[in-house]
Amino acid sequence: MNQTYDALPTSYKLDDLSFTLLGATFKQETGESFNLPQDAVSLGLTTPSGEVTNAGLLLCDQGVLRHSRVVCTHWKGKEKGAIDGDALDDQAFFGTSLIMLLSNTEAFIRNNSKNPWTIRGMRREENSDYPFKAVREVLVNALIHRDYQNIGAEVHVDMYDDRMEISSPGGMMNGSRIQDLDLSMVPSMRRNEIISDIFGRLHYMDRRGSGIRRIINSYTRFKIKPNFYSNEYFFLVSLPNRGVTSKIKHITEETQLTSGETQLTSGETQLTSGETQLTGEETQLTGEKMTLEVWKTSIRQKTENKFQPRTVDKLAKLMMIYEDKYPFNRQIVANRFEISENAASRLLKKAIDCGIVRKEKRGVYYFRVS
């Protein structure tokens, strides 16, 4: 038919769906009003005969195409399944417009970053774990260039201690592998022309094909760079955690000592057996060795039985996952406890008063395990 997937007509009519979010976003980003019947045809959301295209189904409020999904997971550690109870947070977004999928996924990444991007006036602060421009570019490309004909796959966002990996179904359109190409000369090819054009109009992406350069430039001052990989089935981008890479770079620069300075005497390098032996209390602070019952007992003692037993049980399980090293927020608590976010806020305030949780800054919490 000489058409891209998103241009193909479906059995839906314009009256079956709504495009409120697209219209509002269009107005906000372009300053132009969105005339649905007229603009739907010109943008490619419907055919001239009134049939809604696949692009329309992807951008409508209802998110009719159920395989248009983004699965987000924040893993504990540097690999999947490396630690028991290793999922710090996980959410799946679907049943909504691509615009909302993008917004929800960005919120997940922000909430699961120790140093999230912030807004100061009209400018974004870029002293964050992951640069906003690079995150936006990778997510947009994952959503608009994925192979939507593969209905058994979805976009995945996997966050680790040292990096974030974003993968989407479908490799390079010309069959090449991104890792074999000169990244400064990668051709711009669109698998889904209509949604690519609309995202360009909304200023979510650059229509000049400079996205990869923008991603790389976000890491100019950092030692570890983004990594790109593809095969015939999927495309993956790995973004280093800049909070980790900056420390590595700093240590590398600061610890370049002369050979004379780095030679330690045998007396300086020898530690006594007493210095290397940890007490039972210290070793119990590792989540894998501390039993759930010990956590429960600790919580009961600190809270003086102010929480119900089932609340103590859930707090202990959450504490085993996060320990005192990983941040969490009220949304995570709400999901784990299956309560509203307002109820989660009240629970967190009570936990702070009892000394088992500390508030790092607005929306960021850590457990106190000592």
Average pLDDT rating: 81
The percent range for helix content is 25-40%
Terminal Cα separation, in Å? 66 Å
Question: Count the helices. How many?
Answer: 16
Q: Give the neighbour order of strands across the main sheet.
A: 4-3-7-8-10-9
Strand content: 15-25%
Radius of gyration: 25 Å
CATH architecture of the largest domain: 2-Layer Sandwich
The CATH class of the largest domain is Alpha Beta
C-alpha geometry: globular
* CATH domain topology of the largest domain: Heat Shock Protein 90
Low-confidence stretches: 247-290
How many domains? The number is 3
What does the secondary structure layout of this molecule look like, with pairings?
Blueprint lengths: L8 E5 L6 H11 L5 H8 L7 E3 H6 L10 E6 L11 E7 L4 H14 L6 E3 L2 E3 L6 H13 L10 E5 L3 E7 L23 H9 L9 H7 L9 E4 L3 E7 L1 H13 L4 H4 L3 H4 L3 H4 L3 H4 L8 H12 L5 H14 L7 H8 L3 H14 L2 E5 L2 E4 L3
Parallel strand pairs: 3-7
Antiparallel strand pairs: 1-2, 3-4, 5-6, 7-8, 8-10, 9-10, 11-12
Helix pairs in contact: 4-5, 5-7, 13-14, 15-16
